[in-house]
Design brief:
The protein is α+β, with helices and mostly antiparallel strands and about 300 residues long. It folds into two domains: about 10-130, PAS domain (Beta-Lactamase); about 140-310, Reverse transcriptase/Diguanylate cyclase domain (Alpha-Beta Plaits, 2-Layer Sandwich). Helices cover about 35% and strands about 25% of the residues. This is diguanylate cyclase.
Length: about 300
């Protein structure tokens, strides 16, 4: 075990470390003479007390796997042979690592547990690549907001939730006023910077369960679960004011600053309706806000649908 390039440590039946090979020293930054004979192997991996996978097997606590590890599985028919993955703090190494660990129990001839061997693999690079791919699939590259695909999936899920729970669902469509003129005056690099500033302003007004997405071009969409029209109007007004307070000059339209127009719609989901109707209603409210002079909010309660107003 000492000569293997795979990090390995072994616990005896009392959770004492009896093997801590050189590869494990390199991975954790903890020399063997500091950990051999101790019962706190966890200190090499975590800042706060938490059992290693080998500890769980020795102590018969494998029922806790789901609470402690991102992913876990049994390697064979023997329930003691387990595999799991999770982020580890690695206090001595000074860097967080994503480790895949396997454990195998060793029994005496009479079936008594003698020790548990734990092997470790550093999967940090693979995990970071996976996270990056997931972000590419759901995040807009320019603004860091949710992208159109994520918006569509979230709206469908929130629609189904609203339908089950009989709750209102609101949607804001936010469009940057006179953005073509801004691009003409500042170029695409300046336009991109403008969109990033506005994206940050919109995101700062969101609750934890709201979603703001870049819907396309200079248009953003905000999903407000369990939010009635009055609440949606308040959020919309906060967004409008926050963007106005950025004081981004738009030389393409004289001395005016960059503003946004917002269409707000609320629906009480019914079995014979779908999210497309909510999007269309919010778009219509946005068009009215633009038509009435920009830098304002258009509201629609799409229950029947009912009347709309421009504010």
């Amino acid at each position: 075990m000492e000569s293997l390039v795979v990090p390995i440590f072994v616990l005896d039946a009392r959770c004492r470390v009896v093997v801590w090979n050189r590869a494990c020293e390199r991975l954790t930054g903890v020399p063997a003479n500091e950990v051999l004979g101790s019962s706190d192997a966890w200190r090499s991996f975590y800042k706060h007390p938490r059992p290693t996978l080998a500890d769980l097997v020795v102590q018969g606590r494998t029922a806790e796997l789901s609470a402690l590890y991102d992913d876990h599985q049994r390697l064979c028919d023997d329930e003691g042979n387990l595999s799991a993955q999770s982020w580890c703090d690695m206090p001595r190494a000074g860097r967080r690592r994503y480790l895949a660990v396997d454990v195998s129990p060793i029994h005496s001839e009479d079936g008594t547990l003698v020790a548990v061997v734990e092997t470790l693999r550093d999967m940090t690079a693979e995990k970071q690549a996976q996270i990056a791919l997931e972000q590419l699939a759901t995040r807009d590259g320019l603004t860091g907001l949710a992208n159109r695909r994520c918006f569509d999936d979230t709206l469908h899920a929130e629609w189904q939730r609203a339908l089950r729970q009989g709750q209102p669902l609101s949607l804001l469509m936010v469009d940057v006023d006179n953005f073509k003129q801004y691009n003409d005056a500042y170029g695409h690099v300046g336009g991109d910077a403008c969109l990033q500033r506005i994206a940050g302003a919109v995101a700062n007004e969101m609750r934890a369960n709201d979603l703001v997405a870049r819907y396309g071009g200079e248009e953003f969409a905000v999903i407000l679960p369990n939010q009635a029209l009055k609440g949606a109007a308040i959020v919309a007004e906060r967004i409008r004011c926050r963007v106005e307070q950025l004081r981004l000059p738009n030389l393409g339209v004289g001395n005016q600053c960059v503003t946004v127009s917002i269409g707000a719609a609320t629906v009480l989901a019914a079995p014979d309706t779908d999210p497309a109707g909510l999007i269309a209603t919010a778009d219509a409210a946005l068009y009215r806000a633009k038509h009435m002079g920009r830098n304002r909010i258009g509201l629609t309660l799409d229950a029947a649908p009912a009347a709309a107003a421009g504010l």
